[in-house]
Specification:
- Strands 2-1-3-4-5 form a 5-stranded parallel β-sheet, with helices on both faces.
- It has 2 domains: about 80 residues, Arc Repressor Mutant, subunit A; about 160 residues, 3-Layer(aba) Sandwich (Rossmann fold), CATH 3.40.50.
- By secondary structure, it is an alpha/beta fold.
- About 55% of the residues lie in helices and about 10% in strands.
- The protein has 10 helices and 5 strands; from the N terminus they run αααααααβαββαββα.
- β3, α9 and β4 form a beta-alpha-beta unit.
- The chain is globular.
- Keywords: DNA-binding.
- InterPro entries: Homeodomain-like_sf, HTH_RpiR, RpiR-like, SIS_dom, SIS_dom_sf, WH-like_DNA-bd_sf.
């Protein structure tokens, strides 16, 4: 079977700037496409549908439908092939997760000072708000409930209507935590735009390295879906981050 990831890389110099955006997103978040039709993918990564179609045709496919089918089959078969070789699924998956966790200190994803800085800002803030939509809602809610046990009360910003301007929901005294794996969620980014417009202090927790946002700090976690044949969710690391943050807040409160 054709290695579609390598095929995307091999044609990289032939892409237009818009097509390179498509390629970059698929290479960084290979399972991203499995959840998207062409319209939602185009909107999420801010390119036109025609750019996606041209990208697919550059690779030799008739269009997005054929490419998505073959790409989904490729991702699934990669996982199956790995699983057939292993001697113990549980041990192999735990080892794979350990490898990703080891990347945090080894590749300087987040540092102690980052977590303690956020912990201090949360403890000092008069208002803390958390943004999480879609699959990011559960880890965002888990943080909310964990913080309550530490007597830190936050507002979850998840059930919001679409509007061109949501800045009225925030003020410059807010500390805002944003959970977004790829930074491409339209709903999340709409609320985020409101927080930034209101000049709130925004911290973004993500696995996307190439986002360009005017936030207080980006807290980047390893991308577990990249270079990994197993079916992993990047949201799992959000829960680990929550534990790191809650422990930092607990330490801060004891020393304050």
């Amino acid at each position: 079977m054709i290695n579609l990831m390598q095929l995307i890389k091999d044609h990289y110099d032939q892409y237009t700037p818009q097509e390179k955006i498509v390629a970059d997103n698929l290479l960084e978040f290979p399972r991203f496409i499995l959840e998207k039709n062409i319209s939602s993918l185009a909107a999420s990564i801010n390119v036109s549908r025609n750019s996606i179609t041209r990208f697919c045709k550059t690779l030799g496919f008739s269009g997005y439908t054929e490419f998505k089918y073959e790409f989904s089959k490729y991702i699934t078969q990669q996982s199956d092939r790995k699983n057939q070789k292993q001697t113990g699924l549980v041990a192999d998956i735990i080892e794979a997760y350990k490898g990703k966790l080891d990347e945090i200190p080894a590749q300087n994803f987040i540092q102690d000072e980052d977590v303690f800085y956020l912990a201090e800002e949360i403890c000092k803030a008069s208002s803390v708000k958390i943004i999480g939509t879609g699959k990011s809602v559960p880890p965002a809610l888990q943080l909310k409930y964990s913080l309550q046990t530490l007597e830190v009360y936050v507002q979850m910003m998840d059930s919001l209507y679409f509007s061109d301007d949501l800045s009225f929901l925030f003020n410059e005294d807010d500390v805002v935590l944003v959970y977004s794996v790829s930074g491409k969620s339209l709903a999340t980014n709409q609320v985020l735009a409101g927080a930034l417009k209101a000049k709130a202090k925004v911290f973004m927790i993500t696995t996307a390295k190439k986002l360009s946002l005017d936030v207080e700090k980006m807290l980047i976690l390893p991308n577990v879906s990249k270079n990994n044949p197993f079916i992993f969710s990047n949201h799992t690391l959000f829960y680990i981050f929550n534990d790191l943050l809650c422990n930092a807040i607990s330490y801060y409160k004891k020393e304050a």
